[in-house]
Amino acid sequence: MCRGGQQGAPATVKGEGGHMRTNKLWTLAISIVLGVSGSALAQSSGDSITVTASNLGSANFQISAASYSFGIVQSTGGANSGGTQALTGVATGSGATFTAPSATSWTARSAPPRTIRIYNASFSSDINWGTADRLAMRVPVTNLPATAVSCGFKTFTTVGDGAGGCGNGALVRNFSAGMGINVRTGNLEFQLTVDNSDGPGTNTWAVVLTAAGF
Amino acid sequence: MTRKRIILNIVVSLLLVAPSALYAAVSVSLSPPFIEKLMPAGGKLQDTISYTNDSDTPMLVTVDFADFAVSDTGEVSEMPSGTDATSLARSIRISPSRIQVPPGGRTSFRYSVTAPEEFTQLRSQIFFSSTPVVEDAPNQVLFVARMGIPIYVENVKAAPADIRVHELKWERAGDNDERLVLKARVSNEGERNLRPSGFLEVRSKDGEFAQTFPFNEGNEPVLPGQKREWILSFGPVPGGELSLNLRFSTAPRGMFQERYSIP
Questions:
Q1: ipTM for this prediction
Q2: Which residues pair with B79 in a beta bridge?
Q3: B217 Cβ partners below 8 Å, 6+ apart?
Q4: How far apart are CA A182 and CA A190, in angstroms?
Q5: Closest by alpha carbon to A214, among B99, B86, B17?
Q6: B68 and chain A: CB distance < 8 Å anywhere?
Q7: Where are the alpha helices (DSSP H) in chain A?
Q8: Do B141 and A54 touch (CB under 8 A)?
């Protein structure tokens, strides 16, 4: 059956009822199941059946650093001291903002490829000055597929993923590890704000990058 | 999925995952990447999830569950465990729930499921949070990799997946129209998942270009009752008139096939 072919316009097809039974393919599918997974179709003592043919492979998540230190920072801005990398704080009048554009990079891969989603699910901090929300993070779309959308800077306590899209903790959307190639790498950016009213001390945050599939 | 592609995926997984993992400060792998089980009502099963720490630091691994939903456009949303009607939370146990894994170490998490007497499909996301064990530093951010493995338990008596194709629309995209974009609207009228697989054959009118692209390379499922608005990109393809042959699975024994001509 051939449809479409309208000159100068995208082909639109209503495909209701477009099913086609193919016994030959079903036979092939059975042979793949039996050939690939020895436990496929295996039945235990009668109360459970295990099907594993479709869930072979592995998923891998990498972050290029275990931690990142801003070092000692001042509300007047200027250079940090003793951090992972040299940063210069930009004075805002009420304090200063330190931006780490490439704090770390992450890599998600899956074989077989699959769609995954990356969002913030952070929960742990030890705050001695300011508030937990002085830290914000962002995943830019650099190196990601053209369909990827950066959700901008999300504060540390913007957690969860209840709303989908760019809601709640979503850092990037329309992203998948496995369209064309089965690996994607992106950056994680941080922004730290220090206010004039903050006292001295140090903070720690545990940033949780969640990669969830379906 | 063809036998050739399955073998290729396994080889790629071995080649890509293991060597590059050696160079990351945090690198964790989980296998399988998703779980789909068929069970009778009241049935029991046990299986394992393999966890590998290829990081250069020890990892404190903690496990938690969450319910999840998938939007029409394929966005995963997380919900508190046990709050959704499809939650598997009451029926699944996993052990250990907390363990430290050394660099290069591998461990198995054993889970068990006791199916309720009445259900069609239940699902949960099993999250593995890997916290690096490192020394404190001033104003330090610690990176925790949290990976979710979705698990679906489907009743053996549940109706198989039945994908209905409501609309397919082709467009050209990219700077030079070098990509074909398929916008598909489908729904699953069955009670089980289906991860449609298939291919798109593209041929130019003069016959100089002929290539086959996999369909649904992201291996996404269409969940029971779900309406999906899919955007799939294929290419690069040349300009000029193209003939397309699209074929993908819509049920355990069903296929969708259509031919198109793209100006």
A1: 0.79
A2: B67
A3: A113, A178, A179, A180
A4: 27
A5: B86
A6: yes
A7: 23-36
A8: no
